[in-house]
Amino acid sequence: MPVLEVNHIEKHFGDTRVLNDISFTLDKGDVVSVIGSSGSGKTTLLRCLNFLERADGGTIRVNGETVFDASSANSDSDSEIRRKRLHFGLVFQSFNLFPQYTTLQNVMLARQLLAREQPDFKSRKKEIYNEIEHQARRLLIQMGLADRMTNYPHQLSGGQQQRVAIARALALEPDILCFDEPTSALDPELTGEVLRVIRELADRKTTMIIVTHEMAFARDVASHVLFMDKGYIVEQGDPVQVIEHPREERTRQFLAHYAQK
Amino acid sequence: MELFQEQFPIVIHALNIGFLQTLKLFFITLLGAIPLGLVIAFGSMSRLKPLSWLSRLVVWVIRGTPLMIQLIIIYYGPGLVFGNNIWGGGETGRFTASAISFIINYACYFSEIYRGGIQGVPKGQEEAGLVLGMTRSQIFFKVTLMQMIKRIVPPMSNEVITLVKDTSLARIISLQEIIWAGQAFMKGSQGISGAIWPLFFTAFYYLIFNGVLTVLLGRLERRLDYFR
């Protein structure tokens, strides 16, 4: 059974159609790269998956459970949406770390707040908090940030901040981790260190959807590539096939811009 | 010089009593206006259109008219309309009316500062909280609030220092604050008349109190310097 099934997602802002009939599936451990020019709907797609936008049509299923159905989407309470959104993690282009917390606190905060809802929280508080801290430290070490745990975000480079953001998203153990142009705000040198940790996550069979403009990265890391244009999936399939030998004229035009660079 | 030595203790005693009233008005205004401002700020940002319009109307009227007129209307208005003075007589009545005028007036100014502070926190902070499964109130208290406080401390410091001096406006309804106390010696009080120096001397009280406030508020600002 696929981890994620996206069926016929539609989204419009007023009269502008941003997503049209978006469908794809994702198996456990798959990495999907989404490529396409700005305004093609890539970011909106991730925002719909993470319930930051409400799609106007279609369904989303995670592990066989329907987490979103546009025909009944209004009936979900806030706490229902909150529970369902935890299937997904999202790493933003602009990091969005919490500036008043240290690196370690950034990674721990959401889990600490969720732990309060556990029935045995009061009796096991110390134990639970220790567990959360242990996990956060492990994730930060994995991200190569062992010596940065007590620093505040403004003391870190962009690449370090983005790696903290990745650790923060991983702390909630999402089924599917989404990246929205994770390196677009970084210079080439820092881009490399972020792509390296994403590559490691792919090697560990983390299920991911990565919106990116890094074509070489998309080709090498992804098990599947989606090319989007004007809100449609124009072409999808094997990364080498889509990026090296695109079938569609529109895909060829788009990739030609990268070849020139 | 001998005359001055004789007058000085009498004047200082009277000014101290006046300044106590000034301080009382200052602290009670802060105590009332800081939370009321938050209510008005949320009102003006509300998705309920009538509530938002009403809040903005109130802010427009209060910020658009002099505090001195507001004091006069609030103190004398009810008496003119209902035929009796709802504030009760004497200094207590004048103080209550002054405190209410000041709280309403400053809450409106504070609400605009809060609104700027809340809207100044990037949208991405809220979104990051949402995708991490936080509730709206967790996002407000654990993520947004601290960033908002950091943003509003400098403009609030400005308003607080202005408030210290604005309390003297209550003299218009004869509240016996420090300027009223200093001026009394011009007309004649406790055997002293025609003395203008007590009025000049009140400036030192304001200056020293605002000096202390400036140091304290500066410290608060520096304590929030650890993040950006």
Explain this structure.
The complex is a heterodimer of chains A (261) and B (228). With 261 residues, chain A is an alpha/beta fold. Chain A has one domain (4-260): 3-Layer(aba) Sandwich (Rossmann fold). Chain A is built from 9 helices and 10 strands. The longest helix of chain A is centred in the middle third of the chain and has 22 residues, at 121-142. Chain B is mainly α and 228 residues long. Chain B has one domain (2-223): MetI-like fold (Orthogonal Bundle). Chain B is built from 8 helices and no strands. Classes of the chains: A alpha/beta (261), B mainly alpha (228). At the A-B interface, helix 2, strand 6 and helix 3 of A face helix 5 and helix 6 of B.
Shape of chain A: globular
Helix amount of chain B, in percent?
over 70%
Number of helices of chain B: 8
CATH architecture of chain A: 3-Layer(aba) Sandwich
Integer tally of domains of chain B: 1
- Beta-strand proportion of chain A: 15-25%
Would you report the number of β strands of chain B? 0
Q: How big a fraction of the residues of chain B is strand?
A: under 5%
State the secondary-structure class of chain B: mainly alpha
CATH topology-level fold name of chain B: MetI-like fold
Observed structural traits:
heterodimer, A: 261 residues, alpha/beta, Rossmann fold, six-stranded mixed beta sheet, four-stranded antiparallel beta sheet, 24% strand, B: 228 residues, mainly alpha, MetI-like fold, flat
Structure, briefly:
The complex is a heterodimer of chains A (261) and B (228). With 261 residues, chain A is an alpha/beta fold.
